[in-house]
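Re: the 257-residue chain
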Amino acid sequence: MILAVDIGNTNIVVGGYQEEELRFSVRLSTDAARTSYEYAAMLDRILGLYQVDLPAVKGAIVSSVVPPLSTALCQAVRLLCPEVEPMLVGAGMKTGLNIRIDNPKELGADLLAAAVGAMVKYPLPAIVVDLGTATKILVVDENRCFLGGSIMAGVMISLRALSNNTALLPHISLDSPVRQAIGTNTIDCIKSGTILGAASMVDGMIQRYREAMGKEATVVACGGLAAPVIPHCRTPIILDDDLLLDGLLALYHKNEK
C-alpha cells in the first residue's frame, strides 16, 4: 500500500492506494499543535479501521501547505513504518510538467499535485478549480505546461468574514442546500450569495481563462468545498474528489527509486 497525505490549512486528507486503486480516503482536521506521536496514533487507527497491516505500507508521499506539519506527518509515518521514508512534494521532484510561472519554487504542493492529477487523468488542456480554504484555479496546456492561475478567498473564509464584520448577520452552516437565488430570509440570502455567488465566480473565471487561452479546455474541480458549489455552475465541470490524491500517487511513481 502507498499512503498519500495532503496537508491543507483546514483539513488533512489521507488516502491509501492498493495496486493503484484508492482503497480509502479520510479527512482530518488540521491542527498544528498536534505532535508527530498524535498523528501517528491517528494514522494507526485509520489503518486499523480499514484492516491494513502496517507491514503492507510500502511507501508514502506527503504534500503540505502548512510547513510546521510537514515534519510532523513525515515523522508520524516513520514511527508507524520504520522501513518507509516519506516523500515530501517540493522543488526538484520529477513532475512531467513544464512549470512556466515566474518562480517555480513558489508553486504550492497542493496545486502541483492537482495539476499532475489533471495531466494524468484528463484530456489537455485542462482548467482545475480547487475549492478549499482558498479557491484556486490553474491551467495545464496541451503541451503539459503549467501556465499559472488565480487565488481567491475561499467560500468559508468569505462566509466567516461576512458574519465577523457585520453586527446582525449570523454564522450559518452550509450543510443544507440553497433553496432559491432570491432569498426571502437572512439565512437564505446568505446561502444564495455565498454558494451561488461562488458558482457564478467560477463560471466567469472559466470563461475568462478560455478567452485568454483561445481554446476550449477540460474543466475539473476538487477540494473540500467543491461539492456544494460545482452543481450550481452553468459550465460543464467534472467533480473529482480524488484528483489531488491521484496526483500524489502519480508523483510518487515518477520519483520512487
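The radius of gyration is 19 Å.
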